């Protein structure tokens, strides 16, 4: 279950209203709190979390909407390779790939070609990847509990 929030900003030059939708997983609150505590313990009171947020931009959408290129800011091979793998397992995907244009640039490019709407394919791939991560976390926690019980 994720929570979403909508923030509104005015463009500095043009004055247009820009909307940004931010979705968070319930675990994000805990992670953000832990990062905040760590920064306080290290003496860093500057909040840099806004600079490190993952941002997704649609770079190109083909004429038939079946091909798309997206940029994921502040992501790398850790998300790119599993996302590509999960998308390629779907029958409607013709091809999927990702690239890191330059190691010093904090972005990952994802290209997908599918029989369906390509943006939906990427969204479904991300949801499937989150499910896999949740299942892995549950398996790890149960194995950890078994190990603790066996240790006692």
Observed structural traits:
152 residues; alpha+beta; four-stranded antiparallel β-sheet; two-stranded antiparallel ribbon; 3 helices; 6 strands; 41% helix; 30% strand; globular
Instruction: Bin the strand percentage.
Output: 25-35%
Average pLDDT: 80
Q: How would you spell out the order of helices and strands?
A: EEHEEHEEH
* Largest sheet data: 4 strands, antiparallel
Task: Report the helical percentage.
Answer: 40-55%
Order of strands in the sheet with the most strands?
Answer: 3-4-6-5
Report, as a whole number of angstroms, the end-to-end distance: 35 Å
Total beta strands = 6
Mind explaining what this structure looks like?
This protein is of the alpha+beta class. It contains 3 helices and 6 strands. The protein has a 4-stranded antiparallel sheet with strand order 3-4-6-5, covered by helices on one side. Strands 1-2 form a two-stranded antiparallel ribbon. The mean pLDDT is 80.
Task: Compose a concise summary of this entry.
By secondary structure, this protein is α+β, with helices and mostly antiparallel strands. It has helices at residues 26-41, 77-88, 118-151, and strands at residues 3-10, 17-24, 55-61, 67-73, 93-99, 107-114.
């Amino acid at each position: 279950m994720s929570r979403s929030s909508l923030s509104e900003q005015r463009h500095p030059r043009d004055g247009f209203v820009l909307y940004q939708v931010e979705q968070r997983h319930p675990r994000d609150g805990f992670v953000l709190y832990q990062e905040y505590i760590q920064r306080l313990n290290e003496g860093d009171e500057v909040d840099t979390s806004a600079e490190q947020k993952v941002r997704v931009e649609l770079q190109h959408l083909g004429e038939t909407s079946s091909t798309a290129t997206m940029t994921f800011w502040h992501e790398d091979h850790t998300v790119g390779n599993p996302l590509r793998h999960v998308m390629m397992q779907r029958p409607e995907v013709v091809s999927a790939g990702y690239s890191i244009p330059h190691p010093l640039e904090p972005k990952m490019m994802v290209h997908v070609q599918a029989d369906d709407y390509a943006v939906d394919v990427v969204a479904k791939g991300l949801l499937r990847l989150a499910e896999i991560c949740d299942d892995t976390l549950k398996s790890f926690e149960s194995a950890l509990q078994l190990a603790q019980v066996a240790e006692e």
